[in-house]
Amino acid sequence: STQSTWGASMSVGDGIVTKSLFLKSKKGELFLVIARDEANVKMGDIGKDCRFGTEELLQTTLGATKGGVSPFALLNDTEKKVSLTVDKQLIEAPGPILFHPGTNEQTIAITSAELLRFFDSLGYTFRTIDFDAAPSGSSSAAAPPAKEKKEKKEKTPAEAPSGGSTETKLGIEAKKDESTFAEWYYQVITRSEMLDYYDVSGCYILRPWAFTIWKTVQRFFGDAIQELGVDDCYFPMFVSRAALEKEKEHVEGFAPEVAWVTKSGQSDMEDPVAIRPTSETVMYPSYAKWIRSHRDLPLRLNQWCNVVRWEFSHPQPFIRTREFLWQEGHSAFATRAEAEEEVMDILELYRRVYEEYYAVPVIQGRKSEKEKFAGGDYTTTVEAFIPITGRGVQGATSHHLGQNFSKMFGIEFEDPQAHDGSKLFAYQNSWGLTTRSVGVMIMVHGDDNGLVLPPMVAPLQAVIIPCGIVAKTTQEEREALYNQCSALAARLKAAGVRAKADLRHHYTPGWRFADWEQKGVPVRLELGPKDLAKNQVTAVRRDISGKNKEQKRAGVVELPLPSLEADVAALLQTIQADMLARATAERDEHLIQVTEWENFTSTLNKRNMILAPVCSKIEVEVEIKARSAKESQTQALDERAPSMGAKCLCIPFNQPDLPVGTNCIIFKDQPAEYWALFGRSY
């Protein structure tokens, strides 16, 4: 069911006003309470040490915003992380029940029977509590009442500490582990000032810290494709229905995600237009006009733009959003060989973006027939992996479209070998990389203290902080130290290092340490009077963190001031290489070969990707996804483990040896043809 189909049977009118409460226990359990507005809901009746969940957690779990929580937000809880509690008197209500359908500006009315049918359609079980009765009057499924405690005021992360200080509290409260990963991620991206929320669900504000990272990727990739002979351009974001529907298989692949503009002011538009989900159908009518002769080929264009795909399933910043930024390249060639060469050239650039810039290892491969780009001949991909969640991420794709689109749009040219005016259809490619890549980097490298940025993409590579200033330090000594910090920053910038001196004297050095640590700056340089006396600076690596002194000491090194530029540059290169090496080692620990089905789901549930021998039957993928999903429901390691099935991420180009006699993991009477990579994915 969808919210829109439920809405068809709902009508607004007088009825019981309700409230929907999103709660979290101390253990991390999540609850949604649906009750009458006047009901006396005691959080202790719901779960031990319950409190209201943060807006960040609300967004990531239910895709809802403050003021817009309702039972219908459960549509977004695809992994059933939330336990549901319903006011007993709502279940027994004879008349309509009123809810806000995702926004507090609208109200809808449904009956208790419709509400129960909605819960049933989603597969939700729930407990009921009579909130007006004594605690013992709740259902047997209810949690035991907690002991009453004196209510304490909860301090928000931005609340100033006591003592008159003007500093704000820093830090990430959630830990980077599987049970609290979603909350950790949202805290990191907001508190490090990468992103902020917007009042349209699934759309987010990229703040300068994140956009600067994207600009760094733009510069590298833009220069690289220019060297290949690709030119930049820009096409409109709107596409007519006729153009969008010209390639049937293509439009069917995107149809559920297409957003349409149907009104102009208060008037219905005679011809609604779509907002581009991708630009094949936007650009190719022009290609048909511009290409007449083989001399017009190749035509290789790229545009940096935004696209809209109206995802309704659980938006997640950077990873799964309704609007995102990307580059999309579109090429036309006279021959298939030329087109296929470009496919691999672009895929190699995507590998370099991830591995050389983001320090994230990827697996290059070809998508299966089931997973390839709609309307294309084949799709190549770079696949990343998030170890903490055990999920793969499609990093970027390079598609060979064959002649499918050129035949649809009439992109043809005169055959140079013939003299009778006969024509040939062009061979085409399309390829794209999105801001999803930024989210992948955050998920792979971030830690309990915030971002950990690879030096290649860090907006700021080194920050210099003056230390050792005490009460007896004179103003002249303070200014001299500050001047030395500024001079070191200038030296580093002149040498090509992105550096600055943090001279915010109204914050303590410790607060500034935490601030830049949370933002992921690769190197912190501490300069105090003792360092100056030794003609050195203390460098602290962000990528090495630990809880004990020995681990922390491994990330600290003294650098002599005379050779600071060369030493910092070398340190940044070491950090970049170490981050990739660590991420690769961790990824490889979760890359497991499985040849027998009885080991597949149990291996998958341990947060692994699986290399399995398969034949080329498309039914293999369907069967693996269905079986692994079903078995995961009974084999899950804990109640929060994902129950979704495994999909084919790609067929890796780098194939392990396949022993003679190896059979398909599903169809044992069929010989295996290759290893395919399977896993859960975003």
Topology (SSEs and partners):
Elements: H1 3-7, E1 16-24, E2 30-36, H2 43-46, E3 51-52, H3 55-62, E4 82-87, H4 88-91, E5 97-99, E6 108-110, H5 112-122, E7 126-129, H6 181-191, E8 195-197, E9 204-206, H7 208-228, E10 231-232, E11 238-240, H8 241-244, H9 248-254, E12 259-264, E13 267-275, H10 280-290, E14 299-308, E15 323-333, H11 336-357, E16 363-366, E17 378-386, E18 391-402, H12 404-409, E19 412-414, E20 423-425, E21 427-434, H13 436-445, E22 462-466, H14 475-494, E23 499-501, H15 509-519, E24 523-527, H16 529-533, E25 536-541, H17 549-553, E26 556-560, H18 564-589, E27 591-593, H19 600-604, E28 609-614, H20 619-635, E29 647-652, E30 674-681
Parallel strand pairs: 1-5, 2-4, 4-7, 10-14, 18-30, 22-23, 22-24, 27-28
Antiparallel strand pairs: 1-2, 1-3, 5-6, 8-9, 11-13, 12-13, 14-15, 15-21, 16-17, 16-29, 17-18, 18-21, 19-20, 24-25, 25-26, 28-30, 29-30
Short summary of the structure?
This protein is 31% helix and 24% strand.
